[in-house]
């Protein structure tokens, strides 16, 4: 389906627009051939606040590595051959028997509480490089482990991604235990301290009423800089900034 869409090309009206898209990559792709702003996927901020109200973000975390989501493992399924470029299948086969890895394949309404209990949250690609769990991990203080080659992350001017997350190459998914052991023994405390900055969490959440520095504010800032073609601070209408 993606190959067909690529062959069809970008619709003309998109070429005269600035597209807000969660799909961001650093390699050649039609989605990157139009003016665009990469934005985070929407996560209801009320749910995040309710979860944070049940336990402090810097409280004890008894899950070392967490992942809950779709994992195709049967090679005869079309999903098993193509979904996630088999990265999730590698993770499941390699670490499902490791007690340090909390891997679940079924939906659970209270999964945000599991994130809040976790040190590392795996964010492997699915059909696309991005996933809502990336935002949830940051918002709930779990170090996101991004496994998606060439991904372009939202709002790099506001979110210091190299300082709050880990990036693992898709080919190294089977080495996660050694990689995360090394981080735990070296700079985990620094990453967590950076991750708990409330400005970082604010920048990735779309509030019902725009707040200074939140995701909607970041969109307006990015659009204003594209309009001017020079870096500047967006002028947010005073009625929007009343909650700051």
From TrEMBL:
| InterPro entries according to UniProt | Exostosin, Exostosin_GT47
Give me the segments passing through the membrane: none
Q: Which GO terms describe its cellular component?
A: Golgi membrane
Domain Exostosin GT47 intervals: 14-182
Q: MF terms per GO, please?
A: glycosyltransferase activity
Keyword Ligase among UniProt keywords: no
So which domain of life are we looking at? Eukaryota
Membrane topology qualifier = Single-pass type II membrane protein
Q: What keyword terms does UniProt attach to this protein?
A: Glycosyltransferase, Golgi apparatus, Signal-anchor, Transferase, Transmembrane
Q: Which GO terms describe its biological process?
A: glucuronoxylan biosynthetic process
Q: Does the keyword Transmembrane apply?
A: yes
- The leader peptide range reads none
Q: Where is the protein localized? A: Golgi apparatus membrane
Q: Which family does it belong to?
A: Belongs to the glycosyltransferase 47 family.
Q: What protein name is recorded for this chain?
A: Exostosin GT47 domain-containing protein
